[in-house]
Amino acid sequence: MQTTMAGFLLLLLAINSIMIIKLSDMNRTDIIKHLRNMAFGVAGIIVPEMIILLTKNRQIAYYAFTFYYIAFAWYAMMIFRFSVSYSGYKLFKVYKSPLFWIVAIESAALIWGMFSESFFTITHYKWYDHIYWISRGFSILYAYAIVSGISLVGAVAVLIIAASQSARIFRLKYSGIAIILAVMAASCVASQIKHQPILVQVICFAFCEMVIVYMAVYYAPRKLNQRAMKFVADKLNDGIVLYDDEHQLQFVSTGYSDAVGLKGMQGIGNEETYWKKVISEANVGNAWNGRVMSVDRDDGTYYYEIQHMALDEDGKLIGTVYWIRNVTESIKNYGEMVRRANFDELTGIYNEAHFHEMARKLLEEHPDTDFVMTCSSVEKFRVFKELFGQEKYDDYLIRTAESLKTGLVHIPNCVYGRIGEADFYIMMPKESFDPQQLLDAIDEVAKSYSTNNFNLIVKAGVYEITEPLQDMLAICNKASMACDTIKGDYGTRIMWFDESIQKESMLRERYNAELSKAIEHGEIQIYLQPQVDNAGKVIGAEALARWVHREDGLIPPAHFIPFFEMNGRITELDICIWRQACEKLKEWKEKGRDDLHISVNISARDLYALDIYEHHVSLVKEYGIDARNLKLEITESAIINDLKQHVHLVEKLQAAGFEVEMDDFGSAYSSFNMLKDICVDVLKIDMKFLGDTENEARSHAILKSIVDLSGELNMKTIAEGVETEEQLEFLKGVGCDIYQGYYFSKPMSVADFEAKYL
Question: What is the DSSP string of 682-700?
Fold first, then answer.
């Protein structure tokens, strides 16, 4: 019997040795190292027991018992250290541990006692009709047993504490091994109480060690991973369904029913019957990724992406997994993203990028069709926005877009979009384009926004696309250039692009690039147009900007001033003119001619870019001139933009000694209504503002009314654009105060003005 049991222990030792080798091949984590040390400890108690079973020599048996007790003490310490590390607590270095030194002292004492037999004695004992060596311990041996017992009980306690303090999902990791260690401790106690051979303990320890390794390395991590996977899967909105190699359901996440709107495992129990139809609709092979199916529910349509994968090992099927993801929000967000990427958010029609794309596509698909590109743009749209507010401005844009949608729906091969702030572009076949129809559509919306103080004017530019392969931006720019050329021209509503427009545009861009150097080098000069009183005496002049270009000579103001007004650089130009006017007034004052004045223009841009009051007060102080000699002309269109603020500005300028003139009175607004709010010093009337008319008597009556009204309001009047003696005599007859125009003189250089009038 003893030989049979020794052979059984040899088998356990072989298994234990294989386990040590396997553990040595694993990653050298602290847990693996402690498990390997425990396996060595089990080997240390199996070998002495095998000797005890096989020997009949009492002395050898005694030595074997001694080494067993030593090995057991170290094994108990290894179990404690494993439990502490496994529970995640910090360990002392082994040689710094008090337990290490206690066990070391015990081991040394047991070796010393091996020769004196002072710790225990051994004797034969009959157990189940077989004779075994057993030990009988003295009192000192029980102290040794207490230390080993404390190690085992402490290991169990540590694991129980870890289990109680951990999340429920981790409790199996600790509680399973705690139960095994408790069994080991119980076997020790039972063996001592019943005086059983240590063979029982050894077999128990060997089996428990194997179970601990299996639990710690394989079972618990696998179960933990499974529970973690289920925990994560259940927390997701996705559905995860797992089948085995026989197509039977093994796992389904609770999120599956939420994902596809099914209750429980409705219909999915057998993989072949549930998924066969879905799989057969696509050539999937062993892996299938990305099929999207839709499910209609009471609260709308939902979309799900299904991923399928066959799981194999060594070329053999072990199962399949299906992952069902709710992609409803992603698809809806993608749709919204596409909409935002392609359509103008305010108006809902194509934005610039998508308009270019669709227009290019249209040209490519219809190479034999002649197309035109049109650009419609609000003139002085910033004035409109500031006068009526953002909400009204947005409403205009929305209504214009709606007008395009309804008006162009019947025209084939037509695209339209909004580009920039207030520009709408249309590309359509030339044969479908009707200029008057375009203007009527523009006017239909624009007229509803015109008021007594403001007329919303929209201009259109048209480009016949003669070179379809050119860049779409260039095509749009040509339509825009044509539109820009007629801004400020109240008689023209639509303009066709030609090469002269492009050349003019390029020239303007060139002038824009050269403006700063032109000011620095003195190319921007004032020209003076004399102003004459009723006695025919020159009392002053208006300062007008002229560009004496170093290469192009004298550039007409119409070639650069409107462009600089649009791009905002008119302020740089105006400041240059103001300074030259002040320099000339200073020079005249020093010559005793402080009876002459110079009028300078203040543009709408200047009112927002500068502090007009501070700027001009500083100028007259800097040059030592009288403010009354520097007259300030402000167009009524600039004043009306923010009437309340500009009334205050005019009052401040007048208090500082400046005379303020309202230029272009009556040119574009209902000016009489404005006169009740703002009190300027001079009204400047352009003889052309009434336009051509067959009823000259009515024109004269209106002009006389303006002059009379000015007198009633204590304002002087200047008539500009006087070209004939007949006009002069009429103006004198109605009581006009000052005159300016070609009848007296064209604008002239300062030198010519001084030579002629000073």
Answer: EEEEETTTT-S-S-HHHHH
